Here is the input.
Amino acid sequence: MSRLVALHEEMVACRACPRLVAWREEVARVKVRRFREWTYWARPIPGFGDPRGRLLIMGLAPAAHGGNRTGRMFTGDRSGDFLYAALHRAGFANQPTSLRRDDGLRLRGAFITAPCRCAPPANKPLPSELLRCSAWLDREVALLPDVRVVLALGSIGWGAALLHFARRGLEVPRPRPLFGHGAEARIPRGPMLLGCYHVSQQNTNTGKLTPRMIDAVLKRAKALIA
Here is the structure.
């Protein structure tokens, strides 16, 4: 058994945050009408993708009826539809859709992780929950030896990446780099950090984040990796 698989098996048994455990399990019990036939995953969500990937995508947390239902990051919801379509256009995914864990989706050269592994109420993990979950992030990223670029989806992902770099003993630039779409921060002896607006419906439905915008960020990530 690989170290990454062993870590993920340990991770899915985590019950460290009572509020998150209660919420993820309540959502799975109550469900919504369109998913009433599903047996929800309702556990922490491991990272997903190519362990030798040079691109690491840092999300936020699973969606209540997306990852919390399907057991895979950005799977079964509109955010995932937008993200995986973009990854497919950029050559990082073998297909443009992500519906369930057994749908044949594979990532090439990219891995997706998150600073919070359980679906939080209102999509907002508490600082204390992010702190507890940071141990999983650190241990997972330590098993991804080829990462050259971290693409942070949203300001929380950006901040989580910077804190992760600091915990690794890397030199985070001062003043602290600010998040923005297309923002870049070079971490001495570490990966390049890129910013992208989160792929939430709040951003994609309003045009704050368009397919052309995320395509441009992924094109920049590929150029930095090359």
Remarks:
- The longest strand covers residues 149-153.
- Residues 3-225 form a domain with the Uracil-DNA Glycosylase, subunit E fold (CATH 3.40.470.10).
